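Milestone M4 deliverable, item 7.
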Amino acid sequence: MHPLTRATRRALLLAGIAGPAFGQTTLPDLVVTGQAPGSLTAPSVAEQREALEQTPSAARFVDGRDFANRYAFNLRDVLADTPGVFVQGRYGQELRLSIRGSGIARGFHLRGIEVLQDGVPVNLADGSGDFYQIDPSAVRSAAVYPGGNALAFGSSTLGGAINFVTPTARTATEANSLRVEGGSYGTWRLSGQTSAVFGDWDALAAGSIAHSDGWRQHSRGQYEQFNANLGYRLNDSVETRFYAGAYIVRQQLPGSLSLADALNRPQIANPAAISGNQARNLWAERFANRTSIRLDAGQVDVDSWITHKQLYHPIFQAIDQDGLTWGIAPRWTQRYELAGLRGELVLGGRYFAGTNDALQYLNTRGSRGALTANGVQRAQNFEAFAENRLWVLPTVALVAGAKMLRNERDYENRLTGQRFGRAYEGLNPRIGVLWQPRPAVQVFANLTRSQDVPDFSDQLQTVGNRPFWVPLQAQRAWTVELGTRGRYEGYGWDLTLFRSNIRGQLLQFTVDPSIPASTFNAGNTVNQGVEFAGHLDLTRGALAAGDRIALRGSWTFNDFRFRADRQYGDNRIAGLPPHVLRTVLTYAAPEERGFVSPVLDWVPQGAWADYANTLRANQYFKLGLEAGLRVAPNLSLFLDLRNLTNKRYVSDLGTLQNARAAGANTAVFYPGEGRSLYVGARMSF
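Output delivered:
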């Protein structure tokens, strides 16, 4: 045993007082023993991938190098090849993100998935959120943990968690870079990064400004995003890293359309979006810290964060919110041997809270009219979790874990003096087994319990132009998954079958296209499906020595249904298409000098728009072409042609109860973008 040094004692004190002001969490199950040349707070991409691939679950990893020399404007471009992740654009960087049916009927923003940036939740404390804080040009890697597989982050929702990791000076692909892009519909983006390592310190700053006039009417948007981090290594066993970010969004909203308009006049805006000058304007600042201490008995990581978010959102009313979110999350990880068996233990907790001043006004052409709502939303989350992995054989590991939670939601109506609140408690266990017959081949089975707590958008429903509190239940599910993944010579695969038996699934239906949907707890439902991705090197040396031709594809099958529901029987749950397929054929020149990739996106059946299963979106093929060329050691050019045949299709939709019902407004469809061209250049130095 080594006595603690003075620097170690200082770091322990720092970890304790960082508290509600700072925080960050890295990928789970990563423990470094002995002296490491890298960073404790920011593991290398190889270490991140290794940690993920040791989990007995359908976890997936995305390396930022895969899209470094491609056009990646939103998270659809980052996650498009990831099986099981449904991500479709609406306009600008607004999109639908769903994993295994999370937020299946949510026609706006985010629910049922915890989105993390450097391990820090982007979601507000009530679980709601959006994606504007994530800058695709500043993503070094991403890790997808479906469902309860995100336990080591403290997440236990049906959709799980996605962690987007920004680069540090020690993990960036190059110290400095500059990127310029432009294309159709007045689109341009300028982004850059600079970094340095100086002794025990390292620092990186990255920023981007993106603008688009929009393919549709009234869809102009501009995004200004800045991320920075500063790391300091006190000694070989102690390191701290501070993060800062600032994000400004100004996005006009074109609204949703009827199916006929979406397919025949897709570039028009909903008249209400124009008359109300509907928009989403956001200003946010983020500060976080991660302090890591390597002890003789494992590693302690203390994460803390604070985020300020201001929102002005003229839509059905002018929503004016100002909120603060903060949290702290300590975690201890230890590798051990027991009776000759090796194991890994993770113990952690998280306190995650926030308050949000929520005002609403009549929308007068985008300006504030008469006050209609004035309230304060408060959320607190108390969480404790544990996970243990024990290798009972050299190639077989058993995994067991659980999370205890208490989520408190409170709303005070300042206009009436009324207060409403509810607390949700739960215990969510997890068991799994991993068989690894060879280093790059795995077979796994997993059983997890998830619990989704309603957010304030669910609980505060609009009645008579005023918020009305609805005491919804939590959504609970048991999910079983069986899968395999691996790499062997010139091919690789990732295949998972899953089934979730759900009680009280949180579903929504649209009252009016401009008004947030009403939420209800369904009875018994089933979400089941298949997630598959594969790649195959077809040939090498086809045109020149050292080149290759490779094929990769993904297939997501969704079979989400009611079970003997009194109103909907065994109908499919509306919101997502049953099949989503993507195929990419790539020719890569020798020594990575360039590539050409035809891309096919295929949705053979459109999603149902209503629970009565009377109206659905269209099926479609969509063709694209990506290409890149390295013209100098530090300069690359790239091209992205999208929707070459100018196919008219629905990219996303809201949900209805019954589209054939008298008086039903079916303007819930978002048309997909038409033919477009984007070019860019990336220089490193």
